[in-house]
Structures are given as C-alpha cells and as structure tokens.
C-alpha cells in the first residue's frame, strides 16, 4: 500500500512538518487559490498588520464554524535538558488567559456550544483547533485568540499539568509505534534535533529542571515569549458569515497577537551521517510479530511536489497487484502487509520507507526479502519511468481532488493551516495531492537514492530477546546494531529466489462515467425490494451531488457466532475472502473505490463506498468469490498465524481497551472470551473451515442498503443478480432463513439500586496504568429519555474533565460520554491512571457526581436554555458526505429501530424540555444513591496497584454492591432487554 497520504495522529509528535521559509514567499494581495471544481465556498487570504497570515473560508451552508492556528514551533525547538517543553506549552495554553482567567473556560464554552477542541505538537509545528455551532464563532474565537495574546500560565496549573503530560507519556511507554519511532530518532546524530524526545515527562519537566535550579514555569514563559510570534503563525477561520464579516472578526480578535519578527526556525543538515547508514538494527518489540522497516534518506518530495516523484515511486513499490513486490512476497507466504512511502519529512530532510509485516516463515527469509526489494527497485530504475503510469496517477489524484467529500470543518481547517506553513497560497488547498508535471528526472532522482549505500534496516521481533546489547533511553527498547555493507546486500539480491516481478497493468477501475443520475426527491430511505432471501433499502443522493455511492450488505448467518470456534472460523473466512480479492481489487482502492468484508455480530458484512461507476463490477466480483469460495491451505495458515498473533497481543492492549472488552463481555449476549477464541484458533485446520462454510452460508438472509448516485432500477438489478448467484443457482450455496432463526443482539439488564463491580488484573503485568470504567445504565431507546441523557452528558462533560483531569490530575485519558449498545443507553466515565487505583477512582467519580449535583441545581435558566439550543443545533447539523448520512440511516436499519426521522422528533422534544425534567432525570438515574441507579464498575488494576487488587477481591462487598467473579454465570443469571428486531410496532423480519 502507498502510505504517503496518511493523516497525522492528534497529539502524536511522530509526523514531521517542514518550515515554510523557502516554500511560501510572503506575497501580499489577492491570490487565486486552486480549489475543487464544485467547491462553492468563498476563500480569502489576509495578512494582518502584525504579519499574521490568515485564510478565511465562508460557507453559507455550514452548521459548524471552526478555526485552527498553526504555530511554526515544535519540539525541535525544545531547550537542551527541557525535553517536551513545546508540547507542554501546547497543553498549558488551554488553561486560562488574562481576559478569561477561569480555568478551562475556553473548553467549557466550546463544549457547551456543540463543539470540540484539540491540539497536537510535531517536530516543527504546534496546531490548535476547535469547532463550534456556527452562531458562536465570535465568542469562541475571542477565547481562542487569547492563547496567542496573553495566556495565564499560572504556577499552580503548571505543576498540575506536568502530571497530565507524564500520564500521556506513561500511556505511550509500552506502545510499539512510539518505541520504534524513538529508536529511529535515537540512531541519528546527537547534534540534530531529530534525535530528541518530544513528549516530555515528570523527569524532564519537573525533576531535572529543579536539580539545575530551573523553574519550569519561568522557562515556559520564556519559551512562549521568544518563540510564539505572529509572523510564525497561520490562521484559518471557517464560518457561515461573509468573507468581509469574517475579515473584520479576525482583524478584531487577532490584531493583538505580538509580532517579534522572530526568524523562522530552521534545522539544516541531515540527521543521519555515514555511521547511521548501512546498518541493520534488531529491536525487541512489546507485541508478537515481526516487522521489517527499510529506510533511505531522500530528497524531500516537497521540493518537487508538482512533479510528485515520491508519489510515483511509492505507488509502484507499494503496489499489491499481480507482479508487484507484495504479490510475490505474499505468494511465497512471507508477508502479511507492505506499505511504502515518504515517512518522517521536513523541507531539509526526509526518509523513504518500506514497512513489511512478516510471517514467521518470512522472518526466516529477511535477506531474501531485502534482496527482492532491491531487485524490484532495479527493475524500476531500468524500466524508463513509463509516462502512462504518471498519467494514470494524475487522473486518479485530480478526480480525487475535484470530487473530494466535504469533511467536518474542524479537520478541514487544521489541515489547511498546516499546509499554509509549507505551500505557496495558491496551493494551500491542493497541497501536494495532485502531481501535475511529469519529470522522469525527478523520479529517477528518488530511485537513485534507494541504494544499498544509503539504507537503514530496522528489524523487529520478539525472537531477538536476549540477543541485544543496547537500550534506547526514553522507552527502554532493547536493540543491537550491525553493519550491512553494500557487498552483503548484493549477495542477498543474488541469492533471492527468481520471481516474476513486473510493472502493473493499467487500472480498470478508473471511473470513466462521472455523470449524475436523475434522482427522485427522498429524505429517508425506502424499502425497495423484499424477498425471502433479502431486503433492500434505498436512498438516492439528494444532498451531495457527487458521482459516488455507498453500499452495505449484512449477511445474517445464525451459525456465525454460535461458539468461539465458529466465531473464529467466520473471521478466517472473511479475511481469506479479502486476501483472494486483493490481487484484482487492489486497483479499485487505488482508484477511490473502497471495499471491505468483515465479520460482525450477526454474520458478516460487505461495505463499499466511492465512485459509483465501477461499483457494480466490484460487488459482483465479491459475490462471485463468495459463491466459488475454496479454502487454500497455504493462505489459510498465513491468516491463522495473523489471527493467532492478534489474540496473543490482546494482553498488550491499553488498560482502558481491556476495560471496554470486559464491559462488552458482561453486557452483550453471545460474545466470547478472547482466551477461548485464542484456544479455538490454535485448534482449527483448513479442513474445519471447509466443513464449516456450507453450514455458515447454508442459512442466510441479506439486509442491504444502497445510497447515492444510483437509480432504483439498477439497485434492484444488482440484488436480483446477487440472489441468482447465491440462492437460485442449480446447486445453491444459500437457503432462506426460517423465521425462528433470525438473530438479534441483546443486552444484559442490570439491577436497580445495585452496584456491580468487576475487578481484574491488567493482562500485561508490566503496564503500570490502571483503568476504571464506571458505567451507569439508564434506559432503552425512548425519545424523551434519549434527549435528557444527551443533554445531561453535554452539561456534565466539561465539568467532569475539569475536575477529574485538570484539578485532580487522575490521568491523561479522562472522559465522560454516552454509551449506546443496541439501543440500551447510559453514561460512562473512563479514567486511566497511575495515580490512584480503580476503587479509588470510582470514589472520585462519585465525589464528582455529588459536586455536580450543586452545579446542576444552581444552573441559571439562561445557561440551561443555551445548552438545549446547542444540542438542537448539533442535531440539525446537515450531513457533509454520503458516509455520514449512510452511517445514520444504516444504524437505524441494522438496529431495527427504523426511526429515520429521529433527529427531527428529538429536536421537537428538546424544544419543550424544562430544567426540572433534567434535574428529575439526574435525581432518578444518575445521582449518587439514586433510586433507579444501575452501576457496572469495571476495574482494571495495573502493575502499581496489584496489592489493591488482592485486597478488593478478598474484601466483603459494601452494602448494595455485588462483585462479579464469573462473567458468564453472571450473564446467564440476568434478564435481557428486548430486541427491536421483531418487537411490536418495530421491524418485522
Ligand atoms: Zn499532549
């Protein structure tokens, strides 16, 4: 797979962004910004007198406003010995400002007006962003601007927030992506900032500075004053207002940002010198599995982004079709996945990387794999860079740009403000997404850099345990380094097996018909067709006017989850199907037509989304593969190995993920324990799958949803074809379900007035983090209660975060949110912590609820009304693309609730809501000791709290508390909520 265009992870200092000095000349005046053909929004570039560069986006159709500020300062700027200071400053700016001194008032305002906030720090920039209901932009922006004008950075908050940064680092310590990333940084020049540790922890931000007589807060202020300057910032503001009004708004709010004329930070030179090249680094990961990362320093693509040489090269090296490197490695049973593309990059330096997940057998053939990779590179170097491949790529990228789905404004602004630092204004939207100039020289230039002289090979496997002699200091990763001179690689190339590597064939999935069909007006899906075998829901596109469609197809197979074995076999079946399809259908993904086949609660599911032009061809191929499915023993064993490793790695999941797992296991009927599934997968053989499949598919019902640029007649035709292949063939694979066989997923009903708790030791004893999941079960789908719950969650979310994270500093992951399992709804608090054990965290949640009682009772009517209005605005928000729309309607179909007008009805209910009703709801269901209260407390005890675990499992339960010791006997003993599938007035099957 081509990995060049992956979005950066929020708050992950893994993705580098270059300084813009050389790329973006500060031209003033109007510039024509290249935009998608159908983009009706208004754009204007403005430079304020303080040199702050802004892009205004006016969208009369938007329901949300948003803004993002990119600051060209990242952790590369951290002072020596104060690792993580830039990232820490990012955290601190959220607290308070001179104008808004109340702690967290920015986040409170945004949350209470339907929005959200976030930020991330990378090596060369820090990005802050939010969205909010469109009519609150003025007030939100006023608070946001103060980050960059006069933040408070109080001493008290500084000390507390260092704990949040430390907790964030604790969360990453046992995570392989973080560990391996730092290892690559570590094996580089100490004098280059690439070498740095960017997150920070208690030691680097508190202990070490103190030892040296430094005050972290003063250093923070110093850093802010000397680095944050208006000329190093890029702002994007997105609103419903006209461009003129947005401009006035921005001028008023941001003219006070100080411009110190600070020069752009630049970090010339490459982080790797000769001693960091021609190396083979063996590293021991936390998880099972073997990964090979082959990297080369290259000329950054950004310097030739119109030619896009890296796009061309990664398209080919990452290709998965017949004749590709991955195709060959897969055929040999050596690789599970392959990704290629430009990795860490800036304007000064860059790496091209090929990341291959190896099978156990592949691990034994590392040298052959590297040999084949170099052989493929030689093939590319000598094949004369065919122009048709460039043309094809250009067409795909151009179509992708012009028919780009509208994305949530919060993502849109953060993306553009990051681009502004890098590209000239006319390319702020298009960035490097479309290569437009064919340059064989630029492509050859990159290929010529992918040589054995330049290579760095990182090879990770548990098998290296005990064979390494070095330790990376920040994460403690064990590793060793060996030299690999080009002569050795040459030997590997020579001895690698002879395989038929060649260039790909032209892509047959390029959409050629992008016309729009004439659709009838329809606000909701309708049932288009119904037979004994299937049911089809249909919703034409009446909103987005793009040549795209969306298909969901649920195969209800009663046997799919009847035991841990069948659950695992169903999983293997869907993965094999994807595996068989890959050679042929990889091209569809490249051309913007995505598909997936995955197991789900009632069987398995096909999803397709993208250009509608070739969708039918692809769907019919998938159905054809199901009909003629054969178990291939060699691929079976690779898939079995993959799944086995995934189960084995289950114990290395974050404690909060383990808590989610226990919660589902306790509440959901027909779920199996991971260790039972692991035991099952180790027993199964290819012959078991052969025997199982006729039973799995033997009784099937298909529930499907077609939406977008498709006509009803065509949809009916597709479904008739599907039935003909699967149900009506002379020897048919599938037969109709009996009415007694329809599946439902049902949820355990907890007991009123009781508090259930389930203590468990963290599966990875080395993990010091503990986690509490405090779940309050409230009701099953009910209009009035739904809106009361949503309103309560909206009102309580920010106070909970403020108290439990900002004030008490229990842990970086601290949140309150709604929970909805098949229509059964409630609230859940999640806290991951090294500070307190889960039972204590539980007590803190209850203490918060007691405190919140007062807040709620004393809430002024105006505040109540404003929260209600915010929730109404959130509900009335229009769908931005077909995925969003389909997610909602398909949710109603798959749950069986079929309330397509849910939002409208809930808005009507909200308009009548009184504050007393909210208080009554809280008093009945949520308040500590509320009469109707039903609690399930999942407590995962980490390494620091194992003695507390011993105590809680042996202590007598408190009054009205019940300790769950055996999940399955508990689950059997409880009544279940009814299912909406087949209930009175609900969907009939
Ligand atoms: Zn952070």
TrEMBL record:
Residue ranges of every copy of the Coenzyme PQQ synthesis protein F-like C-terminal lobe domain listed in the record: 791-890
Gene3D superfamilies: Metalloenzyme, LuxS/M16 peptidase-like (3.30.830.10)
GO cellular component, one term: cytosol
Cofactor needs: Zn(2+)
MF (Gene Ontology): metal ion binding; metalloendopeptidase activity
InterPro entries xrefs: Metalloenz_LuxS/M16, Pept_M16_N, Pept_M16_Zn_BS, Peptidase_M16, Peptidase_M16_C, Peptidase_M16_M, PqqF-like_C_4
Peptidase M16 C-terminal domain boundaries: 216-395
All residue ranges annotated as the Peptidase M16 middle/third domain in the record: 401-680
Alphabetical list of Pfam families matching this protein: Peptidase_M16, Peptidase_M16_C, Peptidase_M16_M, PqqF-like_C_4
Domain Peptidase M16 N-terminal, chain residue ranges per copy: 55-187
SUPFAM superfamilies: LuxS/MPP-like metallohydrolase
Protein origin, superkingdom: Eukaryota
Keyword annotations of the record: Hydrolase, Metal-binding, Metalloprotease, Protease, Zinc
Chain positions covered by the region annotation Disordered: 1-35
A biological process from GO: proteolysis involved in protein catabolic process
Low complexity: bias regions: 13-27
Family recorded in the similarity comment: Belongs to the peptidase M16 family.
Stated name of the protein: Uncharacterized protein
Organism: Oryza sativa subsp. indica
């Amino acid at each position: 797979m081509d990995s060049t265009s992956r979005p950066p992870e929020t708050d992950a200092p893994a993705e580098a962004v270059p300084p813009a000095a050389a790329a973006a000349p500060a031209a003033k005046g109007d510039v024509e910004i290249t935009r998608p053909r159908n983009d009706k929004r208004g754009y204007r570039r403005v430079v304020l007198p303080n040199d702050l560069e802004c892009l205004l986006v006016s969208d009369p159709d938007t329901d949300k406003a948003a803004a993002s500020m990119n600051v060209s300062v990242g952790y590369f700027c951290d002072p020596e010995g104060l690792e993580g200071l830039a990232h820490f400053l990012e955290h601190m700016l959220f607290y308070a400002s001179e104008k808004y001194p109340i702690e967290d008032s920015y986040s409170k305002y945004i949350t209470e007006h339907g929005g959200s906030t976030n930020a991330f720090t990378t090596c060369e920039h820090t990005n802050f962003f939010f969205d909010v209901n469109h009519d609150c932009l003025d007030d939100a922006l006023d608070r946001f601007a103060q980050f960059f004008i006069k933040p408070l950075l109080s001493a008290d908050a500084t000390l507390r927030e260092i704990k949040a940064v430390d907790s964030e680092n604790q969360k990453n310590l046992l995570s392989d992506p973080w560990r391996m990333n730092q290892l690559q940084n570590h094996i580089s020049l100490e004098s280059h900032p690439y070498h740095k540790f960017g997150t920070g922890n208690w030691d680097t931000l508190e202990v070490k500075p103190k030892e040296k007589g430094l005050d972290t807060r003063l250093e923070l202020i110093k850093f802010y004053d000397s680095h944050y300057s208006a000329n190093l910032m890029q702002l994007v503001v997105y609103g419903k207002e006209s461009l003129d009004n947005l401009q006035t708004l921005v001028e008023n709010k941001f003219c006070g940002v100080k411009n110190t004329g600070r020069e752009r930070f630049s970090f010339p030179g490459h982080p790797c010198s000769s001693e960091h090249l021609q190396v083979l680094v063996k590293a021991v990961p936390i998880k099972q599995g073997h990964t090979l990362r082959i990297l080369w320093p290259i000329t950054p693509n950004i310097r030739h982004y119109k030619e896009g040489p890296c796009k061309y090269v990664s398209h080919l090296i990452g290709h998965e079709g017949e004749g590709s490197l991955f195709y060959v490695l897969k055929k040999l049973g050596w690789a599970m996945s392959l990704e290629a593309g430009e990795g860490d990059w800036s304007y000064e330096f860059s790496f091209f990387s090929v990341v291959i997940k190896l099978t156990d057998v592949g691990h034994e053939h590392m040298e052959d794999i590297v040999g084949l990779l170099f052989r493929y590179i030689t093939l590319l170097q000598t094949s004369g860079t065919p122009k048709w491949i460039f043309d094809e790529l250009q067409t795909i990228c151009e179509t992708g740009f012009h028919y780009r789905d509208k994305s949530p404004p919060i993502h849109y602004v953060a993306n553009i403000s990051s681009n502004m630092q890098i590209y000239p204004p006319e390319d702020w939207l298009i960035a490097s997404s479309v290569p437009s100039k064919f340059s064989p020289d630029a492509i050859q230039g990159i290929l010529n850099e992918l040589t054995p002289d330049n290579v760095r090979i990182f090879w990770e496997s548990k098998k290296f345990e005990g064979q390494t002699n070095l330790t990376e200091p920040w994460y403690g990763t064990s590793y060793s380094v060996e030299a690999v001179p080009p002569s050795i690689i040459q030997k590997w190339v020579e001895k690698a097996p002879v395989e038929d590597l060649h260039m790909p064939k032209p892509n047959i999935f390029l959409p050629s018909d992008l016309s729009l069909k004439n659709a009838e007006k329809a606000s909701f899906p309708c049932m288009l067709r119904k037979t004994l075998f299937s049911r089809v829901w249909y919703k034409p596109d009446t909103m987005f006017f793009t040549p795209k469609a969306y298909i969901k197809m649920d195969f209800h197979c009663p046997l799919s989850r009847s035991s841990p074995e069948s659950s695992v076999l169903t999983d293997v079946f869907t993965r094999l199907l994807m595996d068989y399809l890959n050679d042929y259908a990889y091209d569809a993904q490249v051309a913007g037509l995505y598909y997936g086949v995955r197991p789900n609660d009632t069987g398995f599911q096909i999803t397709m989304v993208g250009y509608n032009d070739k969708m039918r061809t692809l769907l019919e191929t998938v159905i054809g593969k199901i009909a003629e499915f054969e178990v291939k023993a060699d691929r079976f064993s690779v898939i079995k190995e993959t799944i086995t490793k995934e189960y084995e790695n289950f114990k290395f999941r974050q404690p909060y993920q383990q808590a989610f797992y226990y919660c589902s296991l306790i509440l959901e009927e027909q779920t199996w324990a991971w260790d039972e599934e692991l035991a099952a997968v180790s027993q199964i053989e290819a012959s078991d799958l052969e025997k199982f499949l006729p039973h799995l598919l033997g009784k099937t019902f298909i529930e499907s949803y077609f939406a977008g640029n498709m006509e009803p007649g065509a949809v009916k035709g597709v479904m008739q074809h599907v039935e003909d292949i699967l149900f009506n063939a002379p020897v048919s694979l599938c037969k109709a379900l009996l009415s007694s066989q329809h599946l439902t997923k049902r949820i355990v009903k907890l007991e009123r007035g009781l508090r259930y708790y389930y203590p468990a030791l963290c599966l990875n004893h080395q993990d010091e983090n503990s986690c509490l999941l405090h779940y309050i079960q409230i009701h099953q789908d009910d209009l009035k209660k739904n809106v009361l719950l949503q309103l309560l969650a909206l009102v309580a979310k920010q106070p909970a975060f403020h108290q439990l994270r900002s004030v008490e500093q229990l842990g970086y992951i601290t949140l309150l949110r709604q929970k909805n399992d098949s229509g059964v709804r409630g609230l859940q608090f999640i806290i991951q912590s090294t500070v307190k054990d889960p039972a204590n965290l539980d007590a803190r949640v209850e203490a918060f609820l007691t405190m919140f009682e007062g807040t709620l009772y004393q809430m002024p009517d105006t505040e109540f009304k404003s929260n209600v209005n915010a929730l109404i605005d959130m509900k009335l928000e229009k769908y931005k693309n077909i995925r969003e729309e389909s997610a909602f309607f398909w949710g109603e179909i798959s749950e069986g609730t079929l309330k397509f007008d849910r939002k409208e009805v809930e808005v009507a209910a909200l308009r009548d809501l009184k504050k007393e009703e909210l208080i009554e709801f809280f008093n009945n269901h949520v308040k500590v000791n509320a009469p109707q209260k039903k609690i399930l407390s999942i407590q995962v005890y980490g390494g620091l709290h194992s003695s507390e675990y011993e105590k809680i499992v042996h202590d007598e339960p408190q009054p009205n508390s019940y300790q769950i010791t055996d999940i399955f006997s508990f689950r059997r003993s409880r009544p279940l909520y009814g299912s909406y599938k087949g209930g009175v007035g609900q969907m009939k099957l």
